[in-house]
Design a protein that fits this description.
Elements (H helix, E strand, L loop, with lengths): L1 H6 L4 H9 L4 H16 L1 H11 L1 H20 L4 H15 L2 H12 L2 H15 L1 H5 L2 H9 L2 H23 L14 H5 L2 H31 L5 H29 L3 H20 L4 H14 L3 H10 L6 H29 L2 H16 L12
Length: 370
């Protein structure tokens, strides 16, 4: 559901912007509001995971997301809508990273990349639902009803967690004399951090924030066709995440796999920025980005491997917080670029950001997945 709500700006958010008479910058603000809430809560999430465990953390945060959904569904102005998005981000903050934390606590390191790919792939169902299915529901009723339906699903999830997982014992706190600052400042962690800041934010910015607007305004696709394209992009992310996990499990070396993903993503972004593509070519390049840039699952695995057990929850959420530089910044920056220069500047900026993030990577020693 976290991935569902981070993708809805491209579909339901577009309809809300039209109703409020907002500018295209509103979509970037909508995406940024969600991630400001999500990232702002990461330190609390990390402490909660290390001290209380996954299930109890969910029960403490998820009600905030439900309140946010209700506020979004009833919003009469753009600021009210953005406040609701902020609350959804706060309430959703432990969902994905909590699942990653739980998995890495219970799965042997040699299998973690493959199992993490399953988690990532399953989470992309939210991206699929935020495309054609939720747009069809909004057309049958309204975007407000579609948002409310998402809140109902969150309420059901909360009930299931409380009934089925509330008795799960918290993971005991570990003692480790190493300060958390020194635990984070190691070569393996820093090797992957720049790409971690850029990889997922790029796919989020392209697919979840601007793809629908790009296809409708530039290539004259209708609303349903654009939402269908978003569902296609989500489906490709599911397949590619599983493929990345399988490749890492087979070859025990993430370096060439990540490098290939970076190169293909850079090519697609550059093509969108420079060449006057027709609609078919544009969709193909978006598909390539969704496929190639899904190597974030390997970055998460490598970053987790660099963290001591005592700091697993806090370390992962701190890394996620740092990635907020891209997750929050990219939608906002590209919103201004779109307003002043158009989509070529948007894709060009993302290509340059990816290139800069990748520059330190080849100069560090290759690391193998355990």
């Amino acid at each position: 559901m976290s991935h569902f709500f981070r993708t809805t700006p491209a579909t339901l958010g577009l309809q809300a912007a039209q109703e409020f008479g907002a500018t295209p910058l509103f979509l970037g603000q909508s995406s940024a509001a969600f991630f400001i809430g999500l990232m702002g809560a990461q330190l609390l999430v990390g402490i909660s995971l290390d001290r209380l465990g996954f299930a109890r953390s969910i029960t403490r945060f998820l009600p905030v997301a439900i309140v946010g959904v209700m506020l979004v569904a009833s919003a009469q102005t753009a600021p009210q809508y953005l406040l609701g998005r902020l609350l959804i981000g706060i309430g959703s903050s432990p969902l994905f990273m909590g699942a990653v934390y739980y998995l890495t606590q219970h799965i042997p390191p040699i299998k973690q990349a493959l199992y993490l790919s399953f988690v990532y792939a399953f989470s992309q169902l939210g991206t699929l639902l935020a495309g054609y299915p939720i747009t069809a529901l909004a057309d049958l009723s309204s975007w407000r009803v579609a948002e409310f339906a998402g809140g109902v699903v969150l309420a059901v999830m909360l009930g299931i967690v409380k009934v089925g997982l509330q008795n799960t014992s918290a993971i005991p706190r570990h003692t480790d004399p190493l300060p958390i600052g020194k635990a984070l400042l190691n070569r393996h962690f820093l090797k992957f951090l720049p790409l971690f800041i850029c990889a997922y934010p790029i796919i989020l910015t392209v697919v979840a924030t601007w793809s629908s607007t790009y296809l409708i305004n530039i290539h004259s696709l209708d609303k349903l066709a654009a939402s269908g394209a978003i569902s296609l992009l989500g489906g490709l992310q599911i397949g590619s995440v599983l493929l990345y996990g399988l490749l890492a499990r087979l070859f025990h070396n993430s370096a060439p796999i990540i490098s290939a993903g970076v190169i293909m993503t850079f090519i697609a972004l550059t093509a969108l920025a420079i060449f006057p593509l027709r609609s078919t070519g544009a969709v193909l390049m978006l598909c390539l980005i969704s496929t190639a840039c899904s190597f974030n699952v390997l970055l998460v695995r490598e970053i987790r491997a660099a963290l001591p057990q005592a700091f697993a929850g806090r370390g992962m959420t701190i890394a996620n917080l740092i990635s907020g530089l891209g997750i929050i910044g990219f939608p906002l920056i590209t919103g201004f670029l779109l307003r002043d220069f158009g989509f070529s500047a948007v894709f060009g900026f993302l290509a340059i950001a990816l290139l800069l993030a990748a520059i330190p990577y080849p100069f560090l020693a290759k690391q193998k997945v355990p």
